[in-house]
Design brief:
four-stranded parallel beta sheet; Rossmann fold; five-stranded parallel beta sheet; alpha/beta
């Protein structure tokens, strides 16, 4: 009896070690989001999108012959050092097979230095061109680059709104630098004057002196370049306390309800833009919005969308490549195919950059944004 028991255990051990048994193990994807800190609103929105994508994939049978997707979350807290620590933990301790990380450009640059040539890394939202200009073959970006978004938005500001002079304020970050470089180029080709540019560091909380100085230039437009929702709300409250400007704009892709609601009406009428808006959606996008709203009790925003897309694209590429960890093959698969998402057809160029098919001009109205204009992205 003992010999038979030992033989049975040995047989079971062989079965557990076989590839067929191992195939049941979940595919672990590391999710690095700002779950606390100044950009926690992005983290909350992103997590809703990621969880919905994983649930849909698993309900449809998973990937790689039945393996489920398991999302493993770490908090980057809105700081580069915490983003680096989160990525390192996911790679070394959790042994994830891909990283989805990227809300803020400076943090994403720091994270990508750790993931480069070590693991598949998909950046869902951060926009700075420098992120995908590094030449990392396993790094991909779901959102448009800052220069792509800024070119459309700045052309709209200068040609459609046509201020006499623009005064600019924003944090000194990689995102800010990319946006400013584009603004100087677009303004230089127009009759609009760039009255003054004021920058500040991340620890600044009192913007009164900056706003006073910008108002003294006589500029008829204020343009704020800041990607932190809590600080965005504070800036616009202080602008409103000083009477505001005839025309007001905020950087592309950074204005969500997580900034508008805390601003308590101070952002009313501010012009911004993004690659997504729920208003007027049709087809796959409308169905995505309906499913998301039904499950979460709130409509999705851009952050929810791009994180949802990131999870779907990573899982789809692994499944099509037939591997969860052959990153060269998965990356070739990502670049070599067109991926169906709520936005439509999504494809990646040689730098790993995707491009949204449409771009929307927004105006803050109440506690959300409304649609002003739509452009096709060339």
């Amino acid at each position: 009896m003992k010999l038979r028991a030992k033989a049975a255990l040995a047989a079971l051990a062989v079965l557990v070690a076989t590839p067929a048994a191992q195939a049941a193990d979940p595919v672990k994807i590391g999710m690095v989001l700002p779950l606390t800190g100044p950009t926690a609103g992005y983290g909350k929105d992103g997590k809703l999108g990621a969880d919905m994508a994983a649930a849909e994939i698993n309900a449809a049978g998973g990937i790689l012959d039945g393996r489920e997707i398991e999302l493993v979350y770490e908090d980057e807290k809105g700081a580069p050092q915490d983003g680096v620590a989160a990525v390192q933990k996911l790679m070394t301790r959790e042994r994830v097979q891909a990283i989805i990380a990227g809300m803020n450009s400076s943090i994403t640059l720091a994270e990508s230095a750790i993931t480069k040539n070590r693991i598949l890394h998909v950046n869902p939202a951060a926009q700075a061109d420098a992120i995908t200009a590094q030449g990392s073959p396993w790094l991909f970006q779901i959102n448009n680059t800052a220069s792509t978004n800024a070119t459309i938005f700045h052309t709209y500001l200068t040609e459609q709104m046509a201020p006499k002079a623009i005064a600019v304020m924003g944090e000194n970050t990689e995102f800010n630098k990319a946006v400013l470089e584009n603004l100087r180029e677009i303004v230089g080709e127009s009759s609009v004057e760039l009255a003054e540019i004021a920058t500040y560091d991340g620890a600044t909380t009192d913007f009164t002196s900056i706003i006073t100085r910008l108002k003294s230039t006589g500029a008829d437009m204020i343009y704020v370049i800041d990607a932190y929702p809590a600080r965005t709300a504070q800036i616009w409250k202080q602008i409103r306390q000083q009477g505001g400007f005839p025309m007001e704009a905020h950087a592309v892709g950074t204005v969500q309800r997580s900034a508008i609601v805390p601003a308590e009406g101070a952002m009313e009428g501010v012009i911004t833009a993004d690659i997504f808006i729920a208003e007027g959606a049709t087809g796959d996008m409308a169905r995505f919005i309906d499913r998301f709203t039904e499950q979460n009790g709130v409509a999705p925003n851009k952050v929810s969308l791009v994180v949802y897309e990131a999870v779907k694209v990573v899982a789809g590429a692994m499944d099509k490549a037939g591997s969860a960890d052959d990153y060269a093959l998965i990356s070739d698969t990502l670049r070599g195919n067109v991926w169906t998402t709520p936005r439509g057809a999504l494809s990646f160029d040689d730098n790993g950059r995707a491009k949204a098919p449409y771009f929307y001009i927004h105006k803050v109205t109440g506690e959300d944004v409304g649609l002003l204009d739509t452009f096709e992205v060339e």
